[in-house]
Write a structure and sequence with these properties.
The chain has helices at about 1-35, 40-60, 135-145, 150-170, 190-205, 225-295, 295-310, 330-335, 335-345, and strands spanning about 60-65, 70-75, 75-80, 85-90, 95-100, 105-110, 115, 120-135, 210-220. It is an alpha+beta fold and about 350 residues long. The longest helix is centred in the last third of the chain and has 73 residues, at about 225-295. Residues about 1-35 and about 340-345 have low confidence and may be disordered.
Length: about 350
């Protein structure tokens, strides 16, 4: 019995030893777990915090592009404006948001507008406006408040402004100042300047928009106005033609009168010169006749008779005269030979 007890004791002791070893091993594993797994949660938490910080920093940065301004809104209300290109900052959403505003040039057309002129006629005119948002804080915020940063809405409202200004401006001009065959009568440049003056200050004060250029894109006439314009042009051309005809007749009369006056002067001068020449020739002829008579009276009488015949007888003259009467007697008798010979002697 004592032996069986001794045999039972080792078995129990072995069993206890195995259980103790198992319990000790289990206790050792629990004691070593915090040392092995402890650093990993803190490392994961550090990475998570770093990623969150990076996401917050990225969400806070704002890029301002060239040709744009960026409006920082705080809970929907404009807080500040970033104008310089580059990076800026803001509080992340939902505290603040970044809205880009385009500062580049834009062109809007008024469309065809039927307006009346000062002389009661109608014209169809279309104008264009080149504009841009003024690049400063106040005007950018003004543009944001007016149209909620919607360029299409701004263009629509600008067209309305231009249409009203066209009606007012056209009432200050006659149709002849806008449509005319005489370039000196056309005042399109003045029309455009007055149109720009009417809308420039209003657009800047209301929308923060600066007007760079205003021009007439198209100008046509309705059928009634076209007929009236053609009639007016025809009347103007007829008036001009009548005036030019009258001027031509007046100038022709002046030229004719001057020519007649010059002709009378020339004729008088020629008459005077002819009289002087005739008198001089008569003097010279008298001297010649005197010398001839002194040298040969018979020859002188013959020559004078021939001169007389040449003045009273033409190729168509028929005369019936006595041949023995002077001065025809010389044609029959001829000059006495002796007297002629005696007259030629020195």
């Amino acid at each position: 019995m004592s032996q069986s007890s001794s045999h039972d004791h080792p078995d129990h002791a072995g069993h206890d030893h195995g259980y103790a070893g198992h319990h000790h091993g289990h206790h050792h594993a629990h004691h070593g777990d915090p040392q092995v797994a402890g650093p990993f949660p803190w490392r994961r938490m550090s990475w998570a915090l770093l990623l969150v910080a990076f996401a917050i920093a990225a969400a806070s940065l704002v890029q301002v592009r060239s040709g744009e301004a960026t409006v920082i809104t705080r809970f929907g209300n404009p807080a500040r404006v970033l104008l310089q290109p580059g990076l800026g900052w803001r509080w992340p959403a939902p505290f603040e948001a970044a809205i880009p505003v385009d500062l580049r040039l834009r062109t809007s057309s008024s469309g065809l507008q039927d307006v009346g002129t000062r002389d009661g006629l109608r014209i169809i005119v279309q104008a264009y406006v080149t504009w841009q948002v003024q690049g400063d804080t106040d005007n950018v915020q003004r543009f944001m408040r007016a149209v909620q940063n919607q360029p299409d809405e701004a263009a629509r409202q600008i067209r309305t402004f231009v249409g009203s200004a066209l009606e007012t401006t056209a009432a200050s001009y006659d149709l002849a100042n806008l449509v005319n065959t005489d370039p000196s009568q056309v005042r399109i440049a003045d029309f455009e300047a007055q149109l720009r003056q009417q809308i420039e200050q209003q657009l800047l004060a209301t929308y923060g928009v600066r007007v760079l250029q205003v021009g007439i894109e198209r100008l046509t006439l309705p059928s009634v106005t076209l007929t009236a314009t053609v009639d007016r042009m025809r009347a103007e051309r007829e008036t001009i033609a009548t005036e030019r005809t009258a001027i031509g007749k007046r100038e022709a009369a002046q030229i004719r009168s001057s020519a007649e006056r010059d002709a009378r002067i020339l004729q008088a001068d020629a008459t005077v010169k002819a009289a002087e020449i005739e008198a001089q020739s008569r003097v010279e002829a008298a001297e010649i006749y005197g010398k001839a008579y002194a040298g040969s009276p018979q020859l002188y009488n013959l020559l004078r008779s021939l001169d007389t015949l040449s003045t009273i007888v033409s190729p168509g003259t028929k005369l019936i005269l006595r041949t023995d009467a002077a001065p025809f007697r010389v044609l029959v008798d001829g000059p006495p030979t002796a007297e002629l010979k005696g007259g030629t002697q020195p």
